[in-house]
Amino acid sequence: MTDSRRVRVVLADDTTAYRDLLRLLLELDGRFEIVAEAENGREAIDAAVSERPDVIVLDVAMPVLDGLQAIPELREGAPGTAIVVLSGFARGRVDEAALAEGAVAYVEKGEAVETVVDTLLAAAAVPR
């Protein structure tokens, strides 16, 4: 990502209302462009491969293919995309598993907007 453009993001969460809220918050920030949305792990992989975003925000608990299962395919199909796992599960084994699979960060749902924004900006800056 360069300083002259917005961070390109794919939002993957099976809850439409949560995706809508996150999209609104990121768009209002002005530093992000939502290039695609997905409601399951398979759609997330397809979106990341076709759109080549800087960051994908990936929920853990999704149908078809959950977020942890999707990470290896995302790393292979969209190697330049930083994976930020977002989940309602508390930190512990889930965040450790996500990071071990290749996610660059883990954010709990309900964290402050500033925390989410800072995490996505930092993830976009990580060389891959």
Any overview of this molecule?
- The protein has 128 residues and is an alpha/beta fold.
- It has a single domain (7-125), classed as Rossmann fold (3-Layer(aba) Sandwich), CATH 3.40.50.
- It is built from 5 helices and 5 strands, in the order βαβαβαβαβα.
- The protein has a 5-stranded parallel β-sheet, sandwiched between helices.
- Helix 2 (41-51) packs parallel to helix 3 (67-77) and helix 3 runs parallel beside helix 4 (93-101).
- The model has no long low-confidence stretch (mean pLDDT 88).
User: What is the helix content?
Assistant: 40-55%
CATH superfamily: Response regulator
Strand fraction equals: 15-25%
Radius of gyration: 13 Å
How would you classify the helix and strand content by structural class?
alpha/beta
The multimeric state of the shown protein is single chain
- Output the strand order for the largest sheet: 2-1-3-4-5
Second rung of CATH, namely the architecture: 3-Layer(aba) Sandwich
Write down how many β-strands occur, each being a DSSP E stretch of 2 or more residues: 5
CATH topology: Rossmann fold
Low-confidence stretches: none
What is the string of SSEs from the N terminus onward? EHEHEHEHEH
Q: How many individual domains?
A: 1
Number of helices: 5
Average pLDDT level: 88
- Global shape: globular
Mind telling me the CATH class?
Answer: Alpha Beta
Distance between the termini: 11 Å
The biggest beta sheet is recorded as:
5 strands, parallel
